[in-house]
Probable arginine--tRNA ligase, mitochondrial
Amino acid sequence: MFLNGSSDIVHLRQSPDFRLSVNTLLRNGILPTNGDLQAQTEALASQLKQDSVVEEIFAGRGVIHFRVSRNLLVQKVLEQLCQERHKFGVKSELFDGLKKGTTVVEFSSPNIAKKFHAGHLRSTIIGNFIANLKESLGNNVIRVNYLGDWGMQFGLLGAGFQLFGCQEKLKKNPLQHLFDVYVQVNKEAENNEVIGQAAREFFRRLEQQEHQALLLWKQFREITVEEYQQVYKRLGVHFDIYSGESFHQQQAQEVVQQLQRRGLLKTTEKGTGVVDLSSAGDMSSYSTVLRSDGTSLYITRDLAAAIDRKERYNFDEMIYVTDKSQGIHFQQLFQILLAMGHSWAERCQHVPFGLVQGMKTRLGEVVFLEDVLDEARARMLRNMSQSKTTKEMVYPEDTAEKVGISALIVQDFKGPLGSDYKFDWDRILQAQGDTGVFLQYTHARLCSLIHRYGDGEEGAFDPSLLLDQRSISILQHLLRHLAASAHRELPVKGSPQAVAQARLRLFGGVCTVLANGMKILGITPVEKM
Ligand code: ARG
């Protein structure tokens, strides 16, 4: 148990040993100071008893060293791994004491008929990881995709579709067609006043829930969600709820009334409704929640959505994952919720991340998520095409896809979350270094070793055959939920039967731990590549 703990007094070091700082004990008044530090250290060390866990105790300079039994370490870790398998390091009794509750994680949230940009990709990857992590800690996680499915752009899209739309194209390639119509109508609207009018008219019909307009909008939305679901599946991502701004259109008006009742709503000279957020009450900072024509805004819908989610799911915490440019938006959102008396807003959190430049495919700028995944797969397949294993594969595209996606995910987690970075396919798909490809490669090699020789789980193994520094350090990493590989230094092939058996047991454990960690990151481990 002490292997997991470290504090100011007890230091866990690189080896499975720890030391006790006598100096710190004295300084903190835990031991009475009487005389020479060294003499006191030695006296203390001589009084401590060794046992089957701590094999050796000796005094250093002001510290007492404890050496943990290697045999026991090997035995315990590998036994535990064998028992817990996919739960090892994931669902541990260590977490049992933690409070578990309901967590809403809102992520991805693209906008219908618009580009799925790098920010949406990052939100998808990071949000999925947060959701997986919360889930493995035992929380009840609700994954929400909050689509941009309302607003003036749907006026334009609706008007545009009546002019340039085609039902056949819409069914065949919905995302592309909606995007094309949207681009075209925007361009036309620039020098054609009539289009602008038609758009405003269409949006007005939408806001008034007019049947025909709503029907078309519904079709856009449904078709888009279906399409997205397919692509998210490739990424290994799912959502419990596809909500969106449209869901909270009506509720947004109620929010405005509540703000009014609480005396939080001010009307400006221009006729807009605002909430004063300054501490001095001098409007030096404020948020607009109502347009002069009485329609709601992005933040108004977010207010309504948050209140609605609290009522529906009674969450303990809610996490929003978007790029950092929306930092102020969420700050204001939480501030207004608090002002409205919703103290649970304290447990709402925005997780911001940095911007990505230059995400391109061979066809040019990325427009759809599918393009990025296709590009990752195509590039990976090309990189793999030379290897013998690939030639033996039945579905190399499938492996290329999984590995390509891992590469995308790993590179995204590489730098600090808030930092911007430049998207670079060559760097992302590198086979060496801390990359997704290398991670998958390490896992696949262990898998093939185990396929060939078995995982050493049948029968007993001799822990004393794993006492070399290399094996001990791997075990240590397993304890810390990290992983390393050492098939070269610790050969299985050509080793005596018992040694091979023990090492396979070790590698089986490494393989499981790697896979467990990868899954939380949102990576699907491959067994061959
Ligand atoms: N659809 C928005 C965008 O693409 C992101 C939504 C973020 N979530 C929210 N609750 N506002 O920028």
